[in-house]
Amino acid sequence: MRKLLDFLSKYNYWFVFILLEAISLCALFRFNGYQGSVWFTSANTVAGNIMEIHSKTLSYLALGDNNRALTERNVVLEHRIAQLEHELKKLSTPPTYTQQRTDSLLRSYQLLDANVVNNSVLLQDNYLTINKGEADGVRPEMGVVCGTGVVGIVYITAPHYSIVMPVLNSKSNISCRLRKSGYFGYLNWDGGSPLYAWMNDVPRYAKIQTGDVIETSGFSSVFPEGLFIGKVNQVRNSKDGLSYRIKVHLGTDFARLRDVCVIMSPDQDELNALDGQLKEKSRK
After folding, report:
1. Using an 8 Å Cβ cutoff, are 114 and 261 in contact?
2. Fewest CB within 10 angstroms: 175, 269, 278, 282, which?
3. pLDDT at residue 4 tops 90
């Protein structure tokens, strides 16, 4: 407090000078028309500049929020554009022979469209997740296909999602056959490239050529017969030398898989019940 009083007493004449200047300027601008108009105009200009700077400052400070809003909007628009392009591509692209054959074979079945929301292809036991579940009628042991071939079998279901065991899983075991000759075997995957799987237990007297079509055999309640799986890429002997082991180039590109269909067979519950009874009797 003492220092403040010393400061005021030391520079008191400056404060008196500033006060008198202020009083004189007020009197000048208040009682003289010309000087008053000049002051009013200058004050408005200064106030306008200050307000403009304030507005620009607020706009600059709000750029972050505006950029975030624009980014979110762009993401939504990009997603909608991608969906429209995908639908347009599906409508404008003529169906392949495999798609036409698949459609004809599945006409007596109810197909439920689904989207793949999670997928893996580099593991020994891969799984994929689709956005349809028990609320949509999906049950375990239902087949899953796409426009280019077989995908896999429903493994676990939840109310709105399901986990599918695809061909790219070491536990997958799908009954299949050679379309040309009718000899059947079982499709397995032992890891490696997601483009290939193996058809095992093919008789050695079967005539096989590279490029022959592999399709579902229809020997289960999961897939009807004749659905495209892939083509013969290579023929080898089994380890015991009693059968052939065929390397199959899969028709389904699992790394790009997005749209699938769940096969909902009207007779599947009855067939599953029969399979269950058979398994129970075989255990006794």
Report:
1. yes
2. 282
3. no
Question: Which residues in the chain belong to E strands, given as ranges?
Answer: 110-119, 128-130, 143-146, 149-157, 162-166, 174-178, 184-188, 196-203, 213-216, 228-237, 243-250, 259-264
The amino acid occupying position 164 is V
Q: Characterise 177 by phi-psi region: left (phi > 0), alpha (psi -120 to 50), beta (else).
A: beta
Torsion of CA 136, 171, 216, 100, to 10 degrees: 50
Q: Which two tokens stand for residue 256?
A: 């790009």
Question: Residues 122-156: pLDDT tens digits?
Answer: 898 999 999 999 999 999 999 999 888 899 999 99
DSSP class per residue in 122-133: SSSB--EEES--
Beta bridge pairs of residue 185:
176
CA 86 distance to own-chain centroid: 13
Spatial neighbors of 41 by CB under 8 A, at least 6 apart, are none
Chain-centroid distance, C-alpha 244: 39
Name 130's bridge partners: 116, 162
Predicted TM-score of the model (pTM) = 0.63
Q: pLDDT class for 195, splitting at 50, 70, 90?
A: very high
- Sole residue written with tokens 């599953």: 272
Report the pLDDT value the prediction gives residue 218, as an integer from 0 to 100.
84
**Which SS3 state, helix, strand or coil, does residue 169 take?**
strand
